[in-house]
Amino acid sequence: VPPMPGIDETAEPIGQAGPGEELARRLQDRHGHLDARQLLAAMIRDEFPGRVAVSSSFGIEAAVLLALVAEIDPATPVIFLDTGLLFEETLAYRDVLQSHLGLKDVRTVSPDPSALEASDPERILSLAATDNCCSLLKMQLLDKALRGFDAWINGRKRFHGGERSRLAVFEFVDGRIKINPLAAWSPARIEATFRELKLPRHPLAEKGYTSVGCAPCTSLAGLGEDVRAGRWAGREKTECGIHN
After folding, report:
1. Which residue of 27, 30, 60, 87 has the fewest CB atoms within a 10 Å radius of its CB?
2. CB-CB contact of 179 with 153 (8 Å)
3. Active-site residue among 133, 134, 217, 240?
4. 194, 187 contact by CB (below 8 A)
5. What's the pLDDT tens digit per position in 23-78?
6. 78 near 53, Cβ under 8 Å?
7. Chain-centre distance for alpha carbon 32
8. CB-CB contact of 106 with 80 (8 Å)
């Protein structure tokens, strides 16, 4: 992976922030006040041209971020992790959004069959060891898919709660800049943008789902619960690991 722009690769003295953290702070100072559209344009066109990707679950809220990215450059790479355990509705929604928004570079990434056979031949990890399952089917896949990129954009928001409630717009994680342009958005603004842009809805939204991941680990959230309450319901787990 080529070095990130403006980063001095020499070692930093112990106790000081490294070059990646300093870059995240500079980006925050320079762009953190911008609206999501302006911020995305700056990242895609100016700061990381040809070196930034979007990760998307093609879930309940995914169309908003993808629509904003498509307005700027529909050829921006979009990484979609197909774990083999997703709802059929999610796979269909990916195709609908790709066509509707004119996305030109959706990269569907799936586990290597031989690795899957070696690690989970009976496909029971999602029930018996969810952390191991997420590592195999999500974290390892995303790590490979992001090689060659200096930055990646995702759709997390503070109103999701949990660890996301203090989400920064810019982070430096695992050697690259992580961009959260919708961090401060509210549910009302998400809904307004769906209507403004006339975006297609995920088929499971009309059934009451507020967050969708792999089918074995997704259920309906209860009335008044956080939008992600149906993910790994009844367990302490709240994140798959790619955002920890």
Report:
1. 30
2. yes
3. 240
4. no
5. 999 999 999 999 999 999 999 999 999 999 999 999 999 999 999 999 999 999 99
6. yes
7. 19
8. yes
* Known catalytic residue at 134: no
Which amino acid type is present at position 241?
G
Contacts of 201 (CB under 8 A, 6+ apart): 63, 194
pTM (two decimals): 0.85
Q: Rounded to whole angstroms, what are the CA distances from 15 to 11, 12, 18, 121, 175?
A: 12, 8, 9, 45, 18
What is the residue-averaged pLDDT of the chain? 86
